[in-house]
Amino acid sequence: MIGNELVTVRIRRRIVVCLGLFAGMTAQAALAADCPGNPDALGTSRTLVVDPREHPRIGAMQYAETLPLAAGEVVLTFDDGPLPKYSNRILEILASQCVKATFFLVGRQAQANPEGVRKVRDAGHTVATHTQNHPPGMHLLPIERVQQEIDEGIAAISAALGDGTAPAPFFRVPGLARAEGIEQHAASKGAQVWSADFPADDWRPVSSSRVYEVAMKRLEARGKGILLLHDIQARTVAALPKILHEMKARGYRIVHVVPATAELAATSTEPQQWRTRSRHENVAAPHWPQIPRFVFAERAMLPAPWLSDSYWNDEWLTSSDHATSPAGAMPTPRQAPWPRQVPPLLNAVNALPVPAPSVFEFRDRPRPAKATHAAGRATGRVAQSGRPVLKRLVQVR
Ligand SMILES: [Zn+2]
Questions:
Q1: What number is the average pLDDT over the span 288-306?
Q2: Quick one: which H or E segment has residue 322?
Q3: Which has more confidence, 337 or 38?
Q4: What is the average per-residue pLDDT within 138-158?
C-alpha cells in the first residue's frame, strides 16, 4: 500500500517538477542573455520578497514552514564568511553565473574582514547574520549570552556595511542548534530564523565530488529548496561550479530572497505554499523527526538538532588568511570539547530529502549521576571549555 502510494507520489512529483522546469526554461533563456560574457549562465530567475514577521521560522529541516518555492526553484545560502581566501572565489563563481545568494556572515569574521562584507553586498547578494562568535552548542547557552551573540553579530555586520546600512533581518543559528529562546530573541529583532531544506555536508571532511553528489541527490529528492553551503571551505569552492552547471543542465532555477521593506512589499503568496510537509512529502519521508521544542539550561536540558560545531574545521584554522591576518584581528575559535566529526548520514540520501534522524541526536548529553558530586570540577571544566552544560545542570539541582 505504502509502496503504491510512493510510486504514485513520485510520478506526480516528477510531473510537477517537469512542468515547473518547462515553465522555467523560457525565463532561463532570457536570463542567459542578460549575463554579460556568459550566454549559458544559470542566472537568477526571480526575486522573492519575504516578510519575516509573517513567517518567523523557515526551513524544512527544522520548521513547519519553508520558503514558498515552485518546483525546480533553488535558494543558495552560504554560512560562516567572510573569509577572503574562499569567499572571494565563491563570489566570483556566482558572478560568472549571474546567480544571487544569501550569505549568513559571522560578526568577528566581518570585523576581521569588513571589506568582505561589502563585497557580498555590492555583488547584489543578501547579507544576513549568523551570531558574533559562532558559539558551539548555542541552544545550551544562557539566554543572556544568546542575546549578546545575536545582537553583536548584527552590530558587527552593520558596522562593516557602514553608512547606516543594516543587514537583512535573516538569521541562522550556528550548527542549526535551535532553541525557543534563540528564535524569540531573533523575532524580537524583527529577524526571520532560517534553517535550510537540505545541506550538502560541505563542513565535513569529504571530497568536493561528494559535496556535489550530495547536493544534487538531495535537490533531486526534494525537487526544490534552500541549499545550505559554506563559503569558508575549499571543497565548496571546488564543488560549486559543477553544482551550478548541473542545476542549469537539469533545468533548476535560482531564486534570490530579500526582505520586505516599507518601499518593497512582500511577494504575494498563499499560506499553504509555506508549509513544509505536504501530504506527498509526508509519504516520501515517513520517519521525519518531530520538530523539537527546546528551552534553556535554566529550565531543562533537552536534546537539540545540530549539524556540527566542526564548521570551524582545522583547514580553516590553519588557512593562510588566518595565518597572515594582523595580530589579534582573527581570534581563533575554541576547539569544541566533543568529537569534531558527526557520523556519516545513513545510506538514505535518495530516500530522505533531509539529513537522517541521527543528525538530530543529542551528542552532548551531560552525565547527571556524577554531576552533583562534581560541581566544583564541572565548573572548572566549564571555564576551560566554554561549555556551560554541567554548570547549569548543577545549578538547577
Ligand atoms: Zn555556521
A1: 36
A2: helix 320-324
A3: 38
A4: 98
| Options 230, 231, 321, 364, the catalytic residue | 230
Q: Are 253 and 28 in contact (CB under 8 A)?
A: yes
Cβ 256 vs Cβ 73: under 8 Å: no
CA of 38 to the centre of ligand 1 (A): 32
Side-chain half-sphere of 28: how many Cα atoms within 13 Å?
Answer: 22
Catalytic residue among 51, 79, 197, 201: 79
Q: Is 132 exposed, middle or buried (0-12, 13-18, 19+ CB in 10 A)?
A: buried
- What's the predicted TM-score (pTM) here? 0.68
147 grid coordinates:
542575546
The rounded Å distance from CA 5 to ligand 1 centre is 37
Point out which residues pair with 92 in neighbouring strands.
Answer: none
Higher pLDDT, 263 or 282: 263
Q: Which domains does the chain have, with CATH numbers?
A: 2-284 (3.20.20.370), 366-397 (no CATH)
Residue 78's DSSP bridge partners are 103, 229
Distance separating alpha carbons of residues 309 and 13, to the nearest angstrom: 35
Residue whose grid cell is 558559539: 135
Give me the chain's average pLDDT, please. Answer: 74
Q: Give me 231's grid cell.
A: 563559503
Q: Please report the pLDDT score of residue 186 as a whole number.
A: 98
- Whether 79 sits among the annotated catalytic residues: the reply is yes
80 is catalytic: no
Distance of CA 379 to CAs 39, 56, 294, 351, 361, Å?
A: 61, 36, 23, 44, 25
Ligand 1 mean position, distance from CA 172 (Å): 8
Residue 17 C-beta-side C-alpha neighbours within 13 Å: 18
Instruction: Tell me the CA–centroid distance for residue 64 and ligand 1, in Å.
Output: 22
Averaged pLDDT, 280-284: 40
pLDDT at 33: 52
What is the grid cell recorded at 363? Answer: 551528542
What's the CA gap between 337 and 315, in Å, rounded?
18
- CA of 232 from ligand 1 middle (Å) equals 10
Instruction: Give pLDDT, residue 27.
Output: 46
pLDDT of residue 304: 36
pLDDT in tens, 86-110: 999 999 999 999 999 999 999 999 9
- In single-letter form, the type of residue at position 364 comes to D
Determine the pLDDT at residue 341: 34
